[in-house]
Prior knowledge:
Layout: H1 3-10, E1 13-19, E2 22-28, E3 33-38, E4 44-52, E5 56-61, E6 69-76, E7 83-86, E8 92-100, H2 120-127, H3 156-166
Antiparallel strand pairs: 1-2, 1-8, 2-3, 3-4, 4-5, 5-6, 6-7, 7-8
Amino acid sequence: MDAGEIFSLVNDNTLRLVASDFDAHVYYSPDGALAASSVTIYNLDNGSWDIKSDDKLCIKFRVWYYGDVNCYTVYEEPASDKYLLFTTNGSLAYTATVKSGNSENLKVKTKKGTEATFVRSNLERDQGTSRPRPAPVAASAQQADPAIASGPGASSKEINHTVKSMAKDCPGCNLKEVDLRKANLIGANLKGADLRGADLSRANLRRANLEGADLSGATLLSANLPGANLRDADLTGADFTGSNLIQADFTGATVEKTILDNTLQEGVKGL
């Protein structure tokens, strides 16, 4: 959808955004403010929204997602009343349904003098003062291959960054239970790697080589895997919920108890 279509979709309307770990009503006020309420538990938040010049819907919650700005490409799902929001790396972030107006009667917090300009720079300015996202690292990250560890005294943030960098070319490496969430692994060589129990949620694995890798028990929520090579990989109990698997190759892979709910599988092989 282009910017005008996105504006018509969300302006003064309420979208229910649903993901594997998120379910909330979000009202988009005409003045650029938003109000949100969790569906599963009583939890409220507010923030702002904007439309980026390259046709992306940008959302900034005050508390949720640590106040980060996140932008999404929006698609209308064919033959349904649902819309699909994709992250900048091509992963499916949310499935959305729309209700007219402030259907949940959410309280909107606005500032006097706010203009409905919907300029991306407004959110970027706010982002500069928001609290940075923590960089959590799996407890076993220090126990990964020596080539991946960053030495004695390294901070969790440094270790996390090093693990994600080294994983771009790490065939056969021990990456068991490491944190690779949102990692940029486009074209990465992880052939035969040990990724048991690793968290690759929202990682970009486009065209990555995971042939023969052990991904048993791994978490790949909303991961981006178009064209990825998963031939002969062990995917026992792996969770691919919401992931993009277009033209991925699963030939010979072990898929016992593998979760493939709400995945995109156009042109996929071996499933």
